[in-house]
Write a structure and sequence with these properties.
Helices cover 82% and strands 0% of the residues. The chain has 241 residues and is mostly helical. It has a single domain, classed as Multidrug efflux transporter AcrB transmembrane fold (Up-down Bundle), CATH 1.20.1640. Keywords: Membrane, Transmembrane, Transmembrane helix.
Length: 241
C-alpha cells in the first residue's frame, strides 16, 4: 500500500507538476474526510446529515484543488451543489423503494458470531454511502464541462456544446459500468457456478444494492452536465452585461 501511494505521488508530480501535488493533497484530505464521516456516523450522528456536510467539503476540496482557474472551479462547484441536492432525493427514493439496505444472505457466514445491532439505521447508511459514492463523478463531470465551455467562450455553438455533453456522459457511463462489472466479476462467477436463475440474480440484495450505486452515479453525471452548462452560460451572460 505504501509503495503504491508513493508511486501514485511520483507519477502525479511527473505528469502534473505543481498541480499534481495539489491533486494528491486533495486526495489525502478527502481520505481523512471519509474517515471522519465513518467516525461521526459510528458516534451516533445522523448518517445522512454527516454525508451531506462531508459531501460539501469533499466537493470543495476536489474542485478547488483540482484546478487553478477560479473561472472553472466556481461554476463547477455551484453546479455540483445543485446536483448533489437533487441526487440526495434520487438516492433516498431508490433506497426506500428497493429495500436493499443491510446485509444479504451471502454475508451470513462472515457475520456469524457478530451482532448487527449497532444502533445505526442501515437504510440511512445506504443513503449516505449512495450520496458519497456519487461525489467523484459529479466533481469530475462538472470540472470537465465547465473547462470545455469556458475554453470555447464566444465560439461555442449548439453542436459543439452537444458534442461535449454526449462525450462526457458516454465516457463516464462506460467507466462506471466497467468498474461495476470488473469489481463484481467474482460474484457473477459465483452466481454462474451455483446456477442462479436470472430472476434470483435480479432480486439478489447484494447485486441490486451495488447496481443501484452505479445507477446513482450515472444519474448524477447526466444531471451534472446540463446543470454545469446552464450555470456557466448564466455566468457568462451576467459578465457580458
Amino acid at each position: 500500500m505504501v509503495g503504491l501511494v508513493l508511486a501514485l505521488l511520483i507519477l502525479m508530480v511527473l505528469v502534473g507538476g505543481r498541480q499534481g501535488i495539489s491533486n494528491f493533497l486533495a486526495l489525502a484530505i478527502n481520505t481523512f474526510l471519509m474517515i471522519a464521516a465513518v467516525v461521526l456516523m459510528a458516534g451516533g450522528f445522523s448518517p445522512v446529515a454527516v454525508a451531506f456536510v462531508i459531501g460539501l467539503l469533499v466537493l470543495a476540496t476536489t474542485i478547488f484543488m483540482s484546478t487553478s482557474h477560479i473561472q472553472v472551479a466556481g461554476p463547477a462547484f455551484v453546479a455540483s451543489l445543485l446536483v448533489m441536492a437533487g441526487v440526495l432525493i434520487v438516492v433516498f427514493l431508490g433506497v426506500w423503494l428497493s429495500q436493499t439496505s443491510g446485509f444479504g444472505q451471502e454475508d451470513s457466514e462472515e457475520l456469524e458470531g457478530f451482532s448487527v445491532y449497532i444502533g445505526v439505521s442501515f437504510q440511512q447508511l445506504m443513503i449516505a454511502t449512495g450520496l458519497l459514492g456519487t461525489l467523484g463523478a459529479i466533481a469530475e463531470a462538472a470540472c470537465a464541462v465547465a473547462a470545455g465551455v469556458i475554453e470555447l467562450g464566444d465560439a461555442a455553438t449548439s453542436d459543439g456544446l452537444r458534442e461535449i455533453e454526449t462525450t462526457i456522459i458516454g465516457t463516464a457511463m462506460n467507466t462506471l459500468f466497467f468498474g461495476f462489472f470488473g469489481g463484481f466479476s467474482a460474484l457473477f462467477i459465483w452466481f454462474a457456478q451455483l446456477k442462479y436463475p436470472l430472476w434470483q440474480i435480479l432480486n439478489n440484495q447484494i447485486f441490486v444494492g451495488e447496481l443501484l450505486q452505479v445507477l446513482f452515479s450515472v444519474i448524477a453525471v447526466i444531471l451534472t452536465v446540463p446543470t454545469t452548462m446552464w450555470v456557466v452560460r448564466r455566468r457568462q451572460k451576467g459578465m457580458a452585461k
